[in-house]
């Protein structure tokens, strides 16, 4: 059995620190998912919109102002190539964004489940601590207070004083 297989079976090792054993398509699928998220995140930035706007403006400007021999997408025909490029970009952008959203939904589901489990543990811990506090309060009520101990000590001292007085009287009568 390979060392990576043994390490992968250790349950005390956090999953993130284990050496990953690639399963068929697993790492490629995850790599593709991460790539789609990076692309989707990039498409949602102002820099992407600014870059796309500049690209379209330069494309239109070049194909309008440049000499006819240098133009590759004529304005007379309605910038057909530009339309195709933007359609192609949009046709890939939508599924990439959906893939990224699905991965985020999966992460959110896992996070919600972990939060629910943590809340249940916190509730159980809180209930346990509340029961312990009640038990301590009951135990403290059964403990002797300072006043009770003082009163008992006074009674013992009075009893000792009384015995002492009786012994002194008995000693005086004996003489």
UniProtKB/TrEMBL annotation:
Lineage, uppermost ranks: Bacteria, Bacillati, Actinomycetota, Actinomycetes, Micrococcales
Coiled coil start-end: 102-170
Biased composition (Basic and acidic residues): 1-15
Keywords, sorted A to Z: Coiled coil, Membrane, Transmembrane, Transmembrane helix
One Pfam family cited in the UniProt record for this chain: DUF1003
UniProt KW Cytoplasm keyword: no
Bilayer-spanning residue ranges: 47-65, 77-99
Protein name per its UniProtKB record: DUF1003 domain-containing protein
Organism: Agromyces intestinalis
Keyword Transmembrane helix attributed: yes
InterPro entries for this protein: DUF1003
Region Disordered, residue ranges: 1-29
